[in-house]
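Q: Okay, next protein. This is Ubiquitin 3 binding protein But2 C-terminal domain-containing protein from Exidia glandulosa HHB12029. I've checked the sequence twice, so it should be correct. Can you predict the 3D structure?
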Amino acid sequence: MKAEYEPMLQEHDDSSSAGSSEDTSPRSTHKHEPLHPLALWTYIACLSLCVLNIGLLLRGGLKTEAVVDPETLERPSTYIDLDTVKWNASRLAALPPVTNFPMVLAPVSRTDTAKVWPVDPKAWLSDKGTISPDSREVLLSQDTSMIMQFRVLDHKMERCSLVAAIPTEAEIRGRHRDNNVDLDGDTLVHVYRLDAARKLDARTLSYATKPKRLDHVGHFTVKLGAMNGTAEFDCKERTLQTFEVTCPGKRCHINFWQNRDSPVMAFYLRQTHSLPDPE
């Protein structure tokens, strides 16, 4: 008898399933239990919260909280319980004024509004590092004004006056230093308060970037051998006080380098006490 070749059926061959209409594999008889009402309501609540959060996010437009500038925060007092000290008339009379030199002192030009003066032109390099003198240039003319910024010092020294102290010619010559003053006679200057809530950056300070004026503080005359200044005004402890000093006269010209050594030659804030008179 002659053998015949029969090909094996493939798993995907339709004929493999054509003849089998019955499934002999065991079927699961497990039935799903109904969802517990608590789980159902939990699911609904979570879904509702998700929808609500998405709606609020889209409505808010991805807004973030504003970052607080630490420079604008009020500085805490370091004078703990000094308000409890009892003052008498003799102790008040013995309180000397505070000489507060500016932490920012920079000229700005009305005709060259973008000009920024060098911040520390007298700095020099030593074997111990860079030496930066305290002296800063004062330059006032009809077109050039001075920006000055102070931090009010000490406790209850909250009566302030912006002053200019210029020694006599003999006192200046007696310094034995190259620190003369170029002053075109007695010169009237005006002082304006500026709107500045943070410390100014002298590296970018120009007439175009200076803060706007708030009000006119006063005026006084700058002259040799005298200390003159504005009338006293309130200056809260630890606050920033920022001013612009102008020289509107046609013949106005003041130029010198600030010197803190006695005799002082400088613009500075003169602070006197604001304590109430004892009863």
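A: Here is a summary of the prediction. Helices lie at 14-18, 37-60, 89-93, 169-173. The longest strand covers residues 213-222.
Q: Noted. On to the next one.
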